[in-house]
Amino acid sequence: MSSLSVTYEMVRHSAEINTYIQQADASLIALGYTEHSFAHVTRCATVASHLLEQLGADERQVELARIAGYMHDIGNLVNRVDHAQSGAVMAFRILDKMGMPPADTALVVTAIGNHDEGTAFPVNGVAAALILADKTDVRRSRVRGRDTIRFDIHDRVNWAVERSDLELDKEQKTLTLRIQLDIAVCPVMDYFEIFLERMLLCRKAAEYFQLSFRLEVNGQTLL
């Protein structure tokens, strides 16, 4: 049980926050983006917090990573452009109103404001963990309709991913994203066309923890 005044369970069950997540995803549906709703944000919360747990972070940072992961995409409610910064401002108001102490709010807001690849940087451990969780969430279930894979490269790449796993090896100091890609649906080059910037950002985030980031696609090390 977390000793924080505002916990992940409080955030996850907040009707206000959940409304913003739903409406933000509704905007992305209209724009033709992949799923950014509860499956995505819950996965980000889980992966970010689990990574920090494995790395020996304290309970406070682990819980704040869960909160940041769950709330990181609410800025899409305002606009997809600069959604990290919009989401950070929204999160500040929400968490402050909920009574979260400034030091904790600052970590969450900083992580949210630094998660989008256009402006992101792993400025602290929570931000680094959120970047890694968010940018490695590639999977078939994020595609809203199979008919779009013919013309939308983002949908095609996500649909082609049969399995993806993020594995930490503390002894070797590596963090490896292993992807099983159906190349009949999507060639490896298509993956790099849209994800190279994200993978390089993951490398920076891994380096924050003094880890080497690796990308394996169909058993081949590509990064």
From TrEMBL:
One Pfam family hit: HD
Protein name, UniProt field: HD domain-containing protein
SUPFAM superfamilies from the UniProt entry: HD-domain/PDEase-like
CDD domains noted in UniProt: HDc
HD domain location: 37-139
Organism: Candidatus Allofournierella merdipullorum
Lineage of producing organism: Bacteria, Bacillati, Bacillota, Clostridia, Eubacteriales
Gene3D superfamilies for the chain: Hypothetical protein af1432 (1.10.3210.10)
Organism domain of life: Bacteria
Coiled-coil region(s): none
